[in-house]
Amino acid sequence: MKHDIVIIGGGPAGLAAAIAARQSGVEDVPILEREKELGGILNQCIHNGFGLHTFKEELTGPEYAARYIEKAQELGIPYKLSTTVVDLQRQGDSVVVTSVSKEDGLMQTEAKAAVLCMGCRERPRGALNIPGTRPAGIFSAGTAQRLVNMEGYLPGRKAVILGSGDIGLIMARRMTLEGAQVQCVAELMPYSGGLKRNIVQCLDDYGIPLKLSHTVVDIEGKERVTAVTIAQVDEKLKPIPGTEERFECDTLLLSVGLIPENELSKAVGVELSPVTSGPLVNEQLETNIPGVFACGNVLHVHDLVDYVSEEAQQAGRSAAQFVQKAQAGPFGEIPLKTGGAVRYTVPASLSPQRMGEEAVVRFRVGRNMRKATVRVLLDGKEAYKRPRPVMAPGEMEQVLIKKAWFSGEEKEITVEATDGQEGK
Amino acid sequence: MVREITCISCPLGCPLRVELDEAGAVLSVTGNTCKRGEDYGRKEVTAPTRTVTSTIKVEGAGVPVTSVRTERDIPKEKIFTCMEEIRQAVVKAPVAIGDVVIENVAGTGVNVRATKAAQ
Question: Who's near B66: CB < 8 A, 6+ residues apart?
């Protein structure tokens, strides 16, 4: 039996994609989920602040997930839990999904289309080259979050946190509330990658120092971490001798970045962006493999789940259109280029003939900016301009590109953010 | 007295200086770029509040803990008393989203509710 659309992953992206595909008239949209429940990472994100855009209220992660899970169940969308997809192939006009589960063993599922919703992984310690021994007590912040919030264990009593990403900040507060002592958060860069609100409410509220331009230079301990030494770094991010500070502690948490998890995307031949580590997609969120779509953190790492849901709805609708063969090509694809401080755009290309009235283009800048200007240029000609008082690498931005801007002759679209500091 | 805080009303994160008199009344808020910043500064130094989220022990469920929240903000100085009450509490499964698990936590008049079902 051949399914219409198989959804790989039952987190916020998978749920929203499945719901949107069903609401677009495609019935058969099974979700395959590796964990024993739907909801993905939201299940361990018990703090509030989710859903301000979507529901106009501040929900916790599990509450946000529950709204989508209920909707999916109401629509009767089928799902398989504790099922890990291990391979993905395009064969003829089918996508062949190989999965394993206790119940079914090794199983192959065929579908007309697939939506990749696998999310992202934390960057591990091995990728960081921290010197020192290899004792127990070193956790990625997300692992610690899962231990505390789902398994009911506190991973340590006295902790140092490396990296000021949002999960690290959230865990600094969470560990403190559970009675642990968080001595400091060290951040390699001269700015935090976390949201301002988290720095205030997770660190300032509890008097936890944020040490910018600092990194871990030594880890002590044989069986278990006994101390961590941090030092200030120079502009080239090299530790400055003489600035070392030693903290006795039993735990080191790492919050040093997230990487889209694209093993399956690679298996099926999806082309990835070297900047986002996620698939290169067009405005339909379709990859270079026909019928394979991507959304959420597997596509590019988001800071707000609301935008994951929004993006996933687009992917679900696009996959439905693909199955219904609603669109007839070929379409002229125009590449999206980056200008100024813009690091990447999602999508990476779009087609004026194929797109709806407007297309959302999400992007990030590579540095902190003040009094910035965002512009969209068509073959170098300004089509859109908007002032932005503040832009930061930690905050995803978006522009709406309108079909009406195009005459049919355009060769190139540039999304640009400038503040006069270029090249300085 | 002067308190220096960061505004969190928007991503701008203006550094605010809030000047207080001896009795703790706000004399001035500076450093803000909009009205929201002034309101935030006033509230933050006179009556700061926070929503507390945590986990609570569950008996008779397939999971050891489930997540909870205060149903609205509580005074900031009550956070640790609130946490202590949550830590001491044990609830019996089944728990549904929205169930009150602790009434009037830390004498604040605010209930603690489950944010995740546990069966």
Answer: B55, B56, B58, B91, B95, B114, B115, B116, B117, B118
Return the exposure string of A370-407: e unless at least 16 CB atoms fall within 10 Å of the residue's CB, then b: eebbbbbbbeeeebeeeebebbbbbebbebebbeeebe
3-state secondary structure of A191: coil
> Is residue A75 classed as helix, strand or coil in its secondary structure?
coil
Do A392 and B11 count as a contact with CB atoms less than 8 A apart?
yes
Name the architecture of domain B2-47. Answer: Single Sheet (2.20)
Question: Using DSSP, how many helices (H) and how many strands (E) does chain B show?
Answer: 2, 10
Please report, for chain B, the start and end positions of each structural domain, with discontinuous segments joined by +. Answer: 2-47, 53-114
pLDDT at A423 over 80: no
CA–CA distance from A355 to each of A259, A310, A401 (Å)? Answer: 29, 16, 10
Q: What is the pTM of this model?
A: 0.94
Contacts B67 to A, Cβ<8 Å: 46, 60, 62, 149
Which residue in A has a C-alpha nearest to residue B9's C-alpha?
A197
Contact between chains at A149 and B115 (C-beta distance less than 8 A): no
Interface probe with B: pick from A42, A177, A201, most Cβ of B within 10 Å: A177
Cα(A399)–Cα(A386) distance, integer angstroms: 9
The model's pLDDT over B102-114, given as tens digits with 9 standing for 90+, comes to 999 999 999 999 9
Contact between A149 and A44 under an 8 Å Cβ cutoff? The reply is yes
Kindly state whether B6 is in contact with chain A, defined as any CB-CB distance less than 8 angstroms: yes
| Domain B53-114, CATH number (from 1.20.1730.10, 3.40.50.620, 3.10.530.10, 1.20.1740.10) | 3.10.530.10
Q: Which residue has the tokens 């219904």?
A: A324
Torsion of CA A147, A153, A156, A159, to 10 degrees: 50
The tokens of B42 are what? 């006033």
Q: Point out the least confidently predicted range of A119-128, A178-187, B33-42.
A: A119-128
Query: Running DSSP on this structure, what letter comes out for residue A238?
Result: P
Name the amino acid, one letter, at A374: V
What is d(CA A106, CA A353) in angstroms, rounded to the nearest whole number? 42
Report yes or no: B114 and B98 within 8 Å, Cβ to Cβ.
Answer: yes
Alpha-carbon distance A103 to A91, whole Å?
26
Domains B2-47 and B53-114 share a fold: no
Give the mean model confidence (pLDDT) for residues A188-206: 90
